[in-house]
Design goal:
The chain is an alpha+beta fold and about 280 residues long. The chain has helices at about 10-25, 50-55, 60-65, 100-115, 165-170, 225-230, 235-245, 250-255; strands at about 1-10, 30, 70, 75, 80-85, 95, 120, 125-130, 135-140, 150-155, 175, 180-190, 195-200, 205-210, 215-225, 255, 260-265, 270, 275, 280.
Length: about 280
């Protein structure tokens, strides 16, 4: 069977793309090396305009029903100035949401399947298929069985910052800059957050928002130049940053870390060519 579009990567970007293309009547195949639900080290904050899109697609209600709280108010503290306010409404949605990726990705994958897209989990891309200089499909395999080739009019790479599709297509880097920051985040119980909180301190940016399962996600970004020292004890560094943010550090310390602390030192600043003959990507 030949498809109109093959989407490589079926998390937020890929599943949403597959969903919309399938609803438009195209034959869509989405593949991902993960099985859903599963977590990933990435952001999981859906800003108000994106939440409005999820509502339009009929997906937001599922996130809310699963226990994802709405954050309608936010407080920004720079150390010198404190601002507090409400988010403006976009298409009737007036809150942002911070669903766990175990929930958000799975909900979007389910919606894509319901729309008619075929989704293959635990599928690993091995190579792009070319004909006369044009990408015409992919070759890869699942957990078991032989390699298979699937063809399509367009292959879309939605497979993350180290995109295999972009690498295989030879996507030209148009702009790049050194890594500026590294970030750590954790999920905390016993740290209630009635609204979102943002802090800026000495080059550090901290965000704290409610997420599902009665947890709060607390994120801290630090200039990359400090990573060598911080990596000796990333948890101690993370908590020390929070201690600079009013009473946030004390509130977090009074709670419990529900899962291990995640740290992302690899945050590249790259703009690549977004399309070529037979392929598109991010």
């Amino acid at each position: 069977m030949s498809y109109d579009v093959i989407v490589v990567g079926a998390r937020v970007a890929g599943a949403a793309t597959a969903l919309l293309l399938a609803r438009a009547g195209l034959r869509v195949l989405a593949v991902d090396r993960a099985a859903f639900p599963s977590d990933t080290v990435s952001s999981h904050q859906v800003q108000v305009p994106a939440a409005a899109r999820l509502a339009r697609w009929g997906v937001l209600d599922r996130l809310v029903a699963a226990g994802t709280p709405a954050a309608r108010e936010v407080r920004f503290d720079s150390g010198r100035v404190v601002l507090a306010g409400r988010y403006p409404s976009v298409d009737g949605v007036d809150a942002l949401y911070s669903p766990r990726r175990t929930l958000l990705d799975a909900v979007l994958v389910d919606a894509a399947r319901t729309a008619g897209a075929e989704v293959r989990e635990r599928f690993r891309l091995e190579e792009l298929v070319w004909r006369d200089g044009v990408v015409t499909g992919i070759r890869g395999r699942g957990v078991r069985g032989p390699a298979v080739t699937e063809t399509a009019r367009l292959v879309i790479g939605a497979d993350g910052k180290h995109s295999a599709v972009a690498a295989a297509a030879g996507a030209r880097v148009r702009w790049s800059a050194p890594v500026r920051t590294f970030a750590s985040y954790g999920y905390w119980s016993g740290v209630p957050l009635p609204s979102g909180e943002l802090y800026h301190r000495d080059g550090h940016v901290v965000a704290a928002f409610p997420t599902g399962d009665g947890l709060s996600v607390v994120y801290a970004a630090t200039p990359q130049a400090r990573f060598a020292a911080a990596r000796r004890d990333l948890t101690a560094h993370y908590l020390a940053v929070l201690d600079r943010c009013g009473d946030l550090g004390a509130r977090v310390r009074s709670g419990a870390l529900a899962e291990r602390l995640r740290t992302t030192p690899d945050l590249p600043n790259v703009v690549r060519a977004s399309c070529g003959p037979g392929w598109a990507g991010r």
